[in-house]
């Protein structure tokens, strides 16, 4: 396979939590991603007030950037620290509440109400809990998902999309035999077969 030795690699939830705890978050960027800026019109497609989903959001600065434009942002992340850091670093007051449908999950919501971040496994979410979305900004989710879970991830994402939605996906290209990931290498052919 062209994914080299990565296909059996599994990164546990504990390892992700440890990355946030240790500050080993080189994947976090302090600036709005240039590809989101470049393709923003593709995501928005002339529409305003969209519901935009950030899978495995971390503390992405793009969440506030899009919310400031009048969009409703929903994210999901296993690290509570990442979510709290987001609100603190963006100077946004927030409230915290349990998510009754998901044992142990929490929702952090900006006081303004236009940013809602769920602290749980993405696989615990469903459209009955978070609704459906007009757009997705997947900057580091598909490439972070364990290769064995990609089909499960994409199947979930498809159930969260409105009929006329836009999905912006960023991947990385490199020789997967030289790097064990994450980020994982996801060849274009696999993206096409996953999303259909």
UniProtKB/TrEMBL annotation:
<dbReference type="GO" id="GO:0032259">
    <property type="term" value="P:methylation"/>
</dbReference>
<feature type="binding site">
    <location>
        <position position="139"/>
    </location>
    <ligand>
        <name>S-adenosyl-L-methionine</name>
    </ligand>
</feature>
<dbReference type="InterPro" id="IPR025835">
    <property type="entry name" value="Thiopurine_S-MeTrfase"/>
</dbReference>
<dbReference type="Pfam" id="PF05724">
    <property type="entry name" value="TPMT"/>
</dbReference>
<keyword id="KW-0963">Cytoplasm</keyword>
<feature type="binding site">
    <location>
        <begin position="16"/>
        <end position="27"/>
    </location>
    <ligand>
        <name>S-adenosyl-L-methionine</name>
    </ligand>
</feature>
<feature type="binding site">
    <location>
        <begin position="121"/>
        <end position="122"/>
    </location>
    <ligand>
        <name>S-adenosyl-L-methionine</name>
    </ligand>
</feature>
<dbReference type="GO" id="GO:0005737">
    <property type="term" value="C:cytoplasm"/>
</dbReference>
<dbReference type="InterPro" id="IPR008854">
    <property type="entry name" value="TPMT"/>
</dbReference>
<comment type="similarity">
    <text>Belongs to the class I-like SAM-binding methyltransferase superfamily. TPMT family.</text>
</comment>
<keyword id="KW-0489">Methyltransferase</keyword>
<protein>
    <recommendedName>
        <fullName>thiopurine S-methyltransferase</fullName>
        <ecNumber>2.1.1.67</ecNumber>
    </recommendedName>
</protein>
<keyword id="KW-0808">Transferase</keyword>
<feature type="binding site">
    <location>
        <position position="56"/>
    </location>
    <ligand>
        <name>S-adenosyl-L-methionine</name>
    </ligand>
</feature>
<dbReference type="InterPro" id="IPR029063">
    <property type="entry name" value="SAM-dependent_MTases_sf"/>
</dbReference>
<dbReference type="GO" id="GO:0008119">
    <property type="term" value="F:thiopurine S-methyltransferase activity"/>
</dbReference>
<keyword id="KW-0949">S-adenosyl-L-methionine</keyword>
<feature type="binding site">
    <location>
        <position position="77"/>
    </location>
    <ligand>
        <name>S-adenosyl-L-methionine</name>
    </ligand>
</feature>
């Amino acid at each position: 396979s062209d994914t080299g030795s990565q296909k059996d690699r599994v990164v546990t939830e504990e390892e992700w939590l440890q990355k946030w705890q240790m500050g080993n978050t080189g994947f976090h960027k302090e600036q709005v991603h240039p590809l989101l800026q470049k393709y923003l019109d593709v995501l928005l497609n002339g529409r305003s007030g969209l519901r935009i989903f950030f899978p495995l959001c971390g503390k992405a600065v793009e969440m506030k950037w899009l919310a400031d434009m009048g969009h409703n942002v929903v994210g999901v992340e296993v690290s509570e620290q990442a979510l709290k850091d987001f609100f603190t670093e963006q100077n946004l007051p927030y409230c915290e509440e349990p998510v009754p449908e998901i044992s142990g999950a929490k929702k952090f919501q900006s006081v303004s109400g236009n940013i809602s971040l769920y602290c749980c496994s993405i696989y615990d979410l469903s459209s009955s809990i978070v609704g459906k979305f007009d757009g997705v900004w997947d900057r580091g989710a598909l490439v972070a998902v364990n290769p064995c879970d990609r089909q499960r991830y994409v199947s979930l994402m498809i159930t969260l999309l409105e009929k006329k939605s836009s999905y912006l996906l960023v991947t990385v290209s490199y020789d997967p035999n030289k790097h064990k990931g994450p980020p994982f290498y996801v060849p274009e052919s696999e993206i096409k077969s996953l999303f259909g």
